[in-house]
Amino acid sequence: MAEPFAFNIAENVLETLTALVVQEISLACGVQSGFRKLREMLATVKPWILDAEEKQARNNQLQDWVQKLKDACYDAEDVLDEFEVESLRGQVLEQKCIGNKVCNFFSSSNPLVFRLKMAHKIKKITERFSEIADLRDRFHLVEKHDDTMHVVLSDRETHSFVQASDVIGRDIDKKNIVESLLQAPTGGEEENISVLTIVGIGGLGKTALAKLVFNDVNVAEFFQLKMWVCVSNETDLKRLLEKVIKVANGGDRDYGNMSLEKLQKGLRGCLNGKTYLLILDDVCWVDDKPWSKLKPLLMGGAKGSKILVTARSNLVASNMGTIHNLKALPEEESFSLFLKVAFRKGGKEQHPHLVQIGREIVKKCGGNPLAVKTLASLLYSTTSKHEWEKVRDNEMWKLMQDKNDLLPVLKLSYDQLPHYLKPCFVYCSVYPKDYRFASFELVQFWMAHGLLKTSNPDEDPEETGRRYLNELSSRYFFQDFETLGFIQHFKMHDLLHDLALLIAKNECSVVKSQGQDVGEGVRHLYFLDLDIPAESFSRYLDNCCHVRTFRFLYIKEGSRNDFFIQTFLSRFQRLRVLDLSESTFEVLPRGIGNLKHLRFLDLRGNRNIKKLPNSICKLQNLQTLILASCNGIEEFPKDMSQLIMLRALSITTNLTVLPENVVNRLKSLRHLAIGHCENLEHLPEGVRNLTQLRTLVIGMCKNLISLPHGLNCLTNLENLAILHCERLELEGKEDNSQEQHIAQGLRLRRLLLGGLPKLKTLPKWLLIQGSGSHTLSLEMLEIFGCLELASLPEVMQCLTALVELKIEYCPLLSERCRRKTGEDWPKIAHVPYIYLDGHEIGSNRYHKTEGDHRGNQSRSSTTTVISTNISLENDWKKEER
């Protein structure tokens, strides 16, 4: 089932070659002619690649041919990337050195030597492609050209269907479980807590059912404390306790450095005397040893406390408590779910012949909601009878070993993806099961690997990535969406993660235990918090010279780990993505500046780092740099302006003033997040030079006094969040000179203001363009935690583009915005979707259709937290008060 994506890589190489040839740059020693020969060779092979990838599963020799082709394409991509690095280095030298030609000639990368070396590499790769191309005739391949270069999104909003499908057919199950949880304990019970386990095969909706129970009104009133913990494969007692105590305390504190003794005392203190409900979701233990260790530590709650578990296996569940077996959906309810997902409104009446085919497909799904949704979403975009019959009669039904084997069904949906979406899905296997993706993070990850393609030269890669994400979501490859601030958070179903791992088995490797083998061809490597003996380093590193993604979190400082990091940095010279987050370095490892292909560097949560080495500025290809929650940083590199390709930057610092050189001249920057800077008082005026900036997030800077002047220069700024800045005053001076100065060019689409105790009136400069005209661009406005904010300005009536308005924890303002009776209601009555303290009070003249997600999806900020950090995850949060 391996899927090496040779077509995608070949396409990337061809595009790069074409660009280099078109540039007509003067390249000595036959480099230009080598480019042309290589391009001609790839253009000859490319039409057969799609057919080869489809047929390889049934032919080992063909699979080997595709693998060789893919490896050659990867190597060609690396060589061409060196030309890009050299070009960027030249641009930096031109900025830095007045006598740039002399400086360049005597540099460590002499142009003549470089071109001689690269000409040799191009020649060798061209010869490899020639040998591979000569073998294609033996496989009787057919030319295929991909004609789906653009993502075609359906007009359906997926979120409401996700919510509806979560609850369909589970009313009786929910009723029985809620009754069991609310049942008073009998006097004869020996323990304070009882355990109920929902057991069922993957895809039946165990987690969805648990969510319904967790959010039930009666359950909320009965229990003093509710906690939700995803367990998955986690068996380490300490990490399990960290998860439970973190949700019990309702905060973001890092408990990783606490001893087991302190953790268990802390947990028992949280539970002491309280009636609690704990959900242990997706328990995948192979035996009951983890439970036997965890259970005694959960006994501190009041009598009547309950634990609700979801699991696939009866083996472990039988030792935990009472079992509630979740059965398959009845056929009629499955069919109802299928119709809801597969047809637009009124579609089933227009295509009755498809309805009958759909019923036959539903019968084969065996009442599994995930299978029903996946296939229905696959058919949503077509009304071709032939396409529906292909799904009904597909051979994958024969491959199902039993009714519990859903992978062939899911593989069918995967096979129907356009070629450019397949690697985007499969690369998600680099992340662990139940990982909470952030849309921004995933798009940056895809971009770092060159997966985002568009025929529109004016479209940013980030926008392309959002379109890719929307299409994968519409096909149910992702679920559990929450819109938090400017970004979405979501998860991947366990079975889909299993599918991604199965497809990517030759590309991706997740090392979970010592002694696990890592294949020679692995390109994406993830270590799961292992304590690896020094003598085992070579086992993992010797065969991994091609790695492009390396994720190793929670690395503790020490000579052994330092040696390990230095070793992999010297071996992994082709890295595109490096994630060393939540580690304890005081100094960033030497050699980081040699990773010339690196696009994505994540150091978040490294709280011990005091300074960044200037060598990091050698990473001219770097697109994303995450320094969020690196609280100890007091010194930044002096040559930050050399990061000329940097598009996303997230910063936490201990400084009172952020140096100008950190952001001044980062001309490519699209996203900037500055947060958790407790000492920061002023932002650099150089922010106004970031003319390409799309998103600016400023949060958790409690001592920030003012914003920089000149934000009017940010004509491309679309998203602005200013959050939890206690001393910040946003109002302009009495003469309004600041308002006029700061607002000349703002064209905001989304604005978040929260946790600003000094905010008494909503600043006009955020709502009005220069010269007194009213902006028509603002689409979303969210205000929370501004206790002194007493009214909205009259200009609100002119915000005709405003679609969504949310106000929470602003008592004075909420009172004035009451529907029809509030004094400010006339100013906002035209807004289609208004949420006041978690309740929708939108205007009656806007009718919401069944498929409109705005009125149906859960408003996450009223039940959990709101993300304000555009730079990944929710590092800065607003807890419900």
TrEMBL record:
Q: What sequence ranges are listed for the domain NB-ARC?
A: 189-345
Q: Which Gene3D superfamilies match?
A: 1.20.5.4130, Helical domain of apoptotic protease-activating factors (1.10.8.430), P-loop containing nucleotide triphosphate hydrolases (3.40.50.300), Ribonuclease Inhibitor (3.80.10.10), Winged helix-like DNA-binding domain superfamily/Winged helix DNA-binding domain (1.10.10.10)
Q: Where is the Disease resistance protein winged helix domain?
A: 430-500
Which positions fall inside the Disease resistance R13L4/SHOC-2-like LRR domain? 567-805
Query: What's in the keyword line of the UniProt record?
Result: ATP-binding, Coiled coil, Nucleotide-binding, Plant defense, Repeat
In the UniProt record, does the keyword ATP-binding occur? Answer: yes
- Note the coiled coil stretches, chain numbering: 52-86
Domain of life per record: Eukaryota
Q: In what residue span(s) does the Disease resistance N-terminal domain sit?
A: 11-97
GO MF annotation: an example: ADP binding
An example GO BP is: response to other organism
Tell me the PANTHER family matching this sequence.
NB-ARC DOMAIN DISEASE RESISTANCE PROTEIN (PTHR36766:SF61), PLANT BROAD-SPECTRUM MILDEW RESISTANCE PROTEIN RPW8 (PTHR36766)
> What is the protein name stated in its UniProt record?
Disease resistance protein RGA1 isoform X1
